[in-house]
Amino acid sequence: MAQGANEKAVGALTVSRRLLSLPMSGNSEAIGFKEWAFVCEALGQGVQTLILRKGGIHEGRGGFHFQHDDFWLFPTGFHAQKEQLDWTPENAEAVAVPQDEQRAEVVICHHAELKKVWKVTEWEKVAALAPYHVWKEEVIRERFVWNEESCLHVALVRVASLAAAWTFPYERGYGGCRSWVKLPAEKRPIDVLATPSMADEKWQEIANKVHSILD
């Protein structure tokens, strides 16, 4: 990892823009993690560094789990996301994406590295995470109790934002209620200028607080 000359301010801290040789999953496939566009932006802007997931109906026999150590944040166009979040990006109109049937391309701006995963079965612990994500409580509670098992998968991630977005055509295979999709590996950026969404000190502070709640 080479230090670049560019920097940007994040709150009262300064985050260096670095040339990152982004890690690849063990099978070297380009993997996308589908998430609401505004949540992807919250991760990319350093508003949160957690992903909370129950899983979709097409996750397969084993159900959902975080099966990749690194992945690209694949923004989705859920129409009611604004009403289900406590935060909306200032650039909401720019980052919003259309519904699957109207979509022509995918624009990926953020990459995530998985640092820790918990399967949380106690609602009190999930509720205690509220300061560290943008979903409304009723949305998270609905996910927690959905299907036979009351639980949520919580992932602590480190996110970096690309200096230039990765854009490719949308395919029908990206649709459906699934979390993971294979992306066109031949067009994937390898060595790219990327900006960590949080300064190291701020990320570590939040990580410590999350560990204190969930460990």
Overview of this protein structure:
This protein has 215 residues and is an alpha+beta fold. The protein has one domain. Helices cover 20% and strands 37% of the residues. It has helices at 37-44, 92-95, 123-128, 137-145, 200-214, and strands at residues 2-10, 13-21, 30-36, 50-53, 70-76, 105-120, 152-169, 180-183, 191-196. Strands 1, 2, 3, 4, 5, 6, 7, 8 and 9 form a nine-stranded mixed β-sheet that branches. Residues 1-14 have low confidence and may be disordered.
Question: What's the assembly state of these chains?
Answer: single chain
Please identify the structural class as seen in this structure.
alpha+beta
Overall residue-averaged pLDDT value: 85
Q: Output the helix-strand order.
A: EEEHEEHEHHEEEH
Could you write a compact summary of the structure shown?
With 215 residues, the chain is α+β, with helices and mostly antiparallel strands. 20% of the residues lie in helices and 37% in strands.
Keywords:
single chain, 215 residues, alpha+beta, 9-stranded mixed β-sheet, disordered N terminus
Which helices and strands, and how do they pair?
Layout: E1 2-10, E2 13-21, E3 30-36, H1 37-44, E4 50-53, E5 70-76, H2 92-95, E6 105-120, H3 123-128, H4 137-145, E7 152-169, E8 180-183, E9 191-196, H5 200-214
